[in-house]
Amino acid sequence: MVYGGFTVSNAVLAGKYAARLGHGIEFTSRFCIRYISRLPPGGVWMGSDMGYCYECGAQLTWQPIENRQREMCPRCGWVNYPQLKVSAAAMVIQKGRLLLVRRATPPWQGCWYLPAGYVEADEDPVRAAERELCEETGLQAQCDVLHGVYFFDDDPRGSGLLLVYRSHLTGGGLNLNGEADRAGFFSADELPSPLTGAGHDRAIADWVASLTGS
After folding, report:
1. Structure confidence by residue, pLDDT tens digits, 11-29
2. Which of 7, 65, 109, 192 could form a disulfide with 70 if both were Cys (CB 3.0 to 4.6 A apart)?
3. What cofactor does this one take (predicted)?
4. What are 138-180's pLDDT values in tens digits?
């Protein structure tokens, strides 16, 4: 299904995404009901649906395995165990102000977030955070310490983990690459809105809490 210009893989996730962007309960409920028949047996989304066996190419079927509905190959017995997506973000702070960028494209278009992106399969998350910061903003930084790890299930691309690293700038110059259309440093009492979900809002809230000791 397509929502907000972005393909959403299931009704439960679509509902969370719609609600997160501020749509009313009535709209969100109608949106979910319309697509509820597309969920696997039991109505629980299990992640990435492969459809065909990775080992032998046979069409997979949904089977109850280990208390969950999973895709299983009826020919060779291979089971699809979907894994969480992993993202990494650079939390850059200068003179008590936090660097945030505003998303220019779906999903989360118009929402503010920490410069971040998916970790490549062969990439250290620390390097991924530094790379994404440079790609999105033109700024170069070095990650210093892990700020936090955040599970999220409100992103239309799937559930995942966001690893956030406190970082300091080492060079470069602000040059947005098109994924973001605005950027700035913000103090805790002047944060822009809305904030992106997918763990970013909670990471930012933890930063604010760390300033007050709460």
Report:
1. 445 555 455 555 444 434 4
2. 65
3. Mg(2+)
4. 999 999 999 999 999 999 888 999 999 999 999 999 999 989 9
Give the integer Cα–Cα distance in Å for 111 and 103.
6
CATH of domain 48-82: 2.20.70
Residue 208, SS3 per DSSP: helix
Cα dist from 44 to 26, 66, 67, whole Å: 21, 14, 11
Is the sign of the CA dihedral 135, 136, 139, 142 positive or negative?
negative
CA distance 43 to 138: 43
Those residues with Cβ within 8 angstroms of residue 103's Cβ, 6 or more apart along the chain or in another chain? 109, 110, 111, 112, 113, 179, 180, 181, 196
Tokens linked to 36: 């509820």
